[in-house]
């Protein structure tokens, strides 16, 4: 891949509230870095879970770094969640199952395709989650059966996903994401460098309730460069 | 002349002086049209990967027998290349029949990454052109077409730098068999020449590929016949085949064009629709026209009412042989429909909601919903109006052609056996009122209802037309049956409520939760996704035209004066969740003179595939929406009305928006080729023989060839050929 050499020594900024959190997730951090061909760059940022100030600080950090930002849960918080306690102690904190939510937009689909390839290449099981909302649902729905099958197939193809990878739910994106995140070791969140609207609003709502699963914030601006680099062998397929 | 075949393996490439393949390729590529704003050219630029499959559907080239998606020659992971053969189905994984996919003829080994490029589909000639390059240099160009003059023959001509294009293989013969017993033999010959660059750069490759698909529906296809056809095509060569192609398409357009003068974008949209309609239906034998035609795999190539109600009228009015082929598909499946009725304890013929090769119902019993969950599908069981729709389609051909012969002969069972079915299906109550219970109408949000107005009215119409036919030609024994049909036709409850002056969509509909669609959002809106399956069923929100569908299809059979009431009521409740809906509404709104509303829904209709409104155009074009678009222009805005084979006059009642200078149509009616220029106050008629025309409710007038204007107020022909001046 032509982008490989360029990415060597590029940092994966890892944010943790305490050194013990970094220890707990050491293996997972290494897994993510390996999949993305980045070098971990841990940073300790004291934060109050769910606090608006802390969220703002995280998003500001994500805006300032050139690559993805990996935000780790804190042991203190995860310890309060029985099903997360094991992970927080570093027992199962590996990246085996990744959840990638998509709103179906062109840019997120392109980012999802690229990350899907990278994660599956290192043996990670990826679930793509499409939360259908009033804003992104098809304007015409001709029914279950043929139409739904065609729509599913096309949505899956646009995300470059293998069959059975795509899961579609309806509802409020933040809530649905939290529900589905329970089965994942890592959640990927695409966003734009605008901490107020769109995807950032979903991220804010997630963080506001406390971080239970490691979350990888990926700026679409960064992804666009990497998507095109990843996409070289197929670039002509989308050209006239 | 093809002189030498090259192969990828042995690099057996002949280097020739100009005058060989280079000249042949140059001759064809020289014909490439300029990518201007012509309303005959669909220009598709480089697009995002998500649109690649949508473009493939839009850029399909087909000849009624084969349909080839507009995939790029190099395919790639974003591509879904496929060639479909009309009427050939296969069973996959033991499931229901799906349209057979055979090997594509358009693939080339292209290794370049092109930063520029565009494709142009020339609707006038049916040729797809491609130009691709990088940094201002054109590295690859191609032309491809499916030969309308020789259905089953395909041509690809390409020129490319050897830096990006590899020499393709030379001669291939493959065979695919359908589960139905038929199959297709494909013969492809590829000729290649390399021409060195005099300045020492990469050489230029010239490629000509000619292919033949020999199709047999029920037996093994003939290899010798395939070889003979292929030899003839190769002998003709691409330049001659291109010339044939131009003539064949010009001939089709001469009887089918629609032009909105002053609106080239709309003209292009409707021409794109007509192009794909014409491409999707063969003009002989039997034509199984699936919901996506030959443009994509969705809906498995199954034949729905989309074919009979939305596609066939266009064929009947422009290319009757294609309409006849579509009806032949139904005629050959009458025995299966009779067996289905018999199994259900009925008489006559009950056509299936979805069918493929053998005419049995292939509607899936279950499918996935928007969450991927398995849910039951009951359309095959309940959407019985298809049986009357088939009868209506047969009547359409007779009405447009002005001949009873088809209905008196091979088409007779399509009216008579269907009437027999309704006679055994309906129930008379103690008061002598006829009811049809447990059906689903076109509005699939409300399943399993009683006395669906559309179904009852279509059944009543079916019974009356069959009685008319039998009274004309039937034996004495059948006349008694015809009397019974007439009686039942009169007795069937039509849903009309004198209190409201409109039709109730089905028994109990008015008691449902009265929600206006505006409460859900702007149309179209997928109301079932918002409210859920049960939620829409409890509400008055409807998916698509239902009562209004009857106004559209059988306007003379409905009570006078009810259209306006029905429009006012149901428009507010229609979500247009189906691609079939907006065109029908545009048509009836235009007929009623409500032009702003009609234009809004016409705009939605023309963009269903261009804008991928359903999110499924990648799986093929919505042929019913394309046919509906034509109907909106012809039956709606031009107000053409065909009532039956005996009609003495062509009836028009144009309602032309002020934004359009003129609506121009080409049609065949009662064996005549007619060119119409429609304005709201007058029409210009050109025809080769005298033609009786009725404008609105005026007395008919005779238009004498070659042409004349007919003014609405006077409803009389004006000065022959000088009407323009008169109208000023």
Tell me what you see in this structure.
The complex is a heterodimer of chains A (240) and B (728). Chain A is α/β, with parallel strands linked by helices. Chain A has one domain (4-231): Rossmann fold, CATH 3.40.50.620. Chain A has helices at 4-7, 19-24, 26-36, 52-64, 75-79, 82-88, 106-121, 146-158, 173-181, 199-208, 220-230, and strands at 11-16, 39-44, 69-71, 97-102, 125-132, 166-170, 186-191, 215-219. Chain A has an 8-stranded mixed beta sheet with strand order 2-1-3-8-7-4-5-6, with helices on both faces. In chain A, helix 9 crosses helix 10 (199-208). The longest helix of chain A has 16 residues, at 106-121. Residues 1-8, 79-83 and 229-240 of chain A have low confidence and may be disordered. Chain B is an alpha+beta fold and 728 residues long. Chain B has 3 domains: 21-254, Beta-galactosidase, Chain A, domain 5, CATH 2.70.98.40; 263-637, Glycosyltransferase (Alpha/alpha barrel), CATH 1.50.10; 650-727, Maltose phosphorylase, domain 3, CATH 2.60.420.10. Chain B contains 21 helices and 26 strands. The chains are: A alpha/beta (240), B alpha+beta (728). Chains A and B meet through helix 7, helix 8 and strand 6 of A and strand 6, strand 7, strand 14 and helix 14 of B.
């Amino acid at each position: 891949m032509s982008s490989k050499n360029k990415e060597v020594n590029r940092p994966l900024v890892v944010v943790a509230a305490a050194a013990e959190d970094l220890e707990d997730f050491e293996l997972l951090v290494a897994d993510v870095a390996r999949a993305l061909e980045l070098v971990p760059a841990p940073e300790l940022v004291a934060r109050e879970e769910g606090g608006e100030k802390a969220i703002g600080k995280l998003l500001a950090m994500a805006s300032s770094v050139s690559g993805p930002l990996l935000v780790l849960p804190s042991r203190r918080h995860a310890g309060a969640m029985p099903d997360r306690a094991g992970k927080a102690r570093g027992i199962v904190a590996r990246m085996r199952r990744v959840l990638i939510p998509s709103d179906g937009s062109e840019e997120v689909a392109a980012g999802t395709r690229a990350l899907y390839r990278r994660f599956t290449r290192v043996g990670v099981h990826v679930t793509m989650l499409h939360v259908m909302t009033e804003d992104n649902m098809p304007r015409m729905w001709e029914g279950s059966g043929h139409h739904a099958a065609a729509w599913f197939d096309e949505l899956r193809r646009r995300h470059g996903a293998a069959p059975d990878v795509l899961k579609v739910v309806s509802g409020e994106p933040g809530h649905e994401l939290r529900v589905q995140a329970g089965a994942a070791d890592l959640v990927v969140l695409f966003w734009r460098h605008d901490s107020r609207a769109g995807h950032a609003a979903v991220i804010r709502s997630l963080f506001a309730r406390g971080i239970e699963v490691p979350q990888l914030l990926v700026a679409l601006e960064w992804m666009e460069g990497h998507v095109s680099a990843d996409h070289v062998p197929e670039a002509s397929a989308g050209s006239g | 002349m093809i002189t030498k075949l090259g192969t990828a393996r042995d690099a057996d490439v002949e280097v020739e002086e100009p005058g060989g393949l280079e000249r042949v390729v140059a001759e064809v590529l020289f014909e490439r049209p300029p990518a201007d704003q012509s309303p005959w050219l669909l220009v598709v630029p480089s697009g995002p990967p998500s649109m690649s499959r949508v473009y493939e559907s839009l850029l399909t080239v087909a000849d009624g027998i084969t349909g080839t998606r507009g995939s790029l020659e190099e395919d790639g992971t974003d591509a879904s290349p496929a060639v479909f053969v009309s009427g050939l189905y296969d069973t996959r994984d033991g499931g229901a029949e799906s349209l057979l996919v055979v090997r594509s003829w358009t693939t080339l080994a292209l290794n370049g990454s092109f930063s520029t490029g565009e494709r142009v589909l020339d609707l006038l000639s049916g040729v797809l052109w491609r130009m691709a390059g990088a940094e201002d240099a054109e590295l690859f160009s191609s032309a491809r077409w499916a030969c309308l003059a020789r259905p089953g023959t395909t041509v690809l001509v390409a020129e490319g730098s050897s830096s990006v294009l590899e020499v393709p293989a030379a001669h291939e013969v493959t065979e695919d068999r359908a589960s139905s017993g038929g199959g297709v033999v494909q013969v492809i010959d590829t000729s290649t020449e390399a021409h060195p660059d005099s300045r020492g750069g990469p050489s230029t490759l010239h490629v000509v590929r000619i292919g033949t698909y020999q199709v047999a529906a029920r037996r093994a296809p003939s290899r010798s016949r395939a070889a003979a056809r292929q030899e003839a095509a190769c002998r003709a060569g691409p330049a001659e085949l291109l010339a044939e192609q131009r003539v064949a398409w010009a001939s089709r357009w001469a009887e089918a064009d629609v032009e909105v003068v002053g609106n080239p974008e709309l003209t292009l949209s409707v021409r794109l629709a007509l192009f794909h309609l014409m491409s999707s239906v063969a003009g002989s034998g039997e034509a199984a026209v699936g919901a996506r035609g030959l443009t994509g795999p969705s809906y498995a190539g199954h034949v729905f009412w989309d074919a009979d109600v939305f596609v066939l009228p266009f064929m009947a009015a422009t290319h009757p042989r294609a309409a006849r082929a579509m009806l032949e598909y139904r005629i050959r499946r009458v025995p299966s429909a009779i067996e289905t009725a018999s199994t259900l304890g009925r008489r006559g013929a009950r056509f299936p909601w979805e069918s493929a090769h053998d005419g049995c119902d292939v509607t899936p019993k279950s499918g996935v919903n928007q969450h991927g969950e398995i849910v039951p599908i009951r359309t095959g069981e309940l959407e019985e109006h298809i049986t009357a729709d088939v009868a209506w389609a047969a009547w359409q051909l007779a009405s447009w052609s002005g001949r009873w012969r088809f209905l008196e002969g091979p088409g007779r069972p399509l009216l008579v056996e269907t009437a027999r079915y309704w006679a055994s299906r309906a129930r008379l109550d103690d008061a002598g009122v006829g009811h049809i219970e447990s059906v689903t109408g076109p509005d699939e949000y409300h399943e399993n209802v009683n006395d669906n107005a559309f179904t009852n009215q279509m059944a009543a119409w079916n019974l009356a037309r069959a009685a008319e036919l039998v009274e004309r030609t039937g034996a004495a024994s059948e006349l008694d049956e015809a009397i019974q049909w007439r009686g039942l036709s009169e007795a069937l409850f039509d849903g009309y409520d004198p209190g409201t002056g409109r039709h109730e969509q089905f028994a109990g509909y008015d008691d449902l939760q009265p929600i206006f669609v505006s409460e859900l959002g702007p149309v179209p809106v997928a109301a079932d996704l918002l409210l859920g399956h049960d939620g829409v069923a409890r509400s008055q929100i409807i998916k698509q035209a239902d009562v209004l569908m009857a106004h559209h299809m059988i306007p003379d059979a409905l009570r006078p004066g009810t259209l306006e009431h029905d429009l006012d009521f149901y428009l507010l409740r229609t979500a247009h969740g189906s691609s079939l809906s907006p065109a029908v509404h545009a048509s009836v709104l235009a007929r009623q003179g409500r032009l702003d509303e009609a234009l809004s829904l016409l705009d939605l209709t023309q963009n269903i595939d261009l804008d991928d409104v359903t999110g499924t155009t990648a799986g093929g074009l919505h042929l019913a929406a394309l046919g509906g678009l034509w109907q909106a222009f012809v039956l709606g805005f031009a107000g053409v009305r065909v009532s039956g084979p005996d009609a003495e006059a062509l009836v028009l009642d144009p309602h032309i928006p002020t934004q359009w200078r003129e609506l121009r149509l080409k049609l065949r009616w009662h064996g005549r080729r007619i060119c119409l220029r429609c304005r709201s106050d007058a029409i210009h008629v050109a025809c080769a023989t005298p033609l009786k025309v009725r404008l609105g409710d005026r007395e008919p007038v005779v238009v004498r060839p070659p042409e004349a204007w007919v003014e609405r107020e006077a409803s009389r022909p004006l000065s022959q050929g000088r009407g323009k001046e008169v109208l000023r």
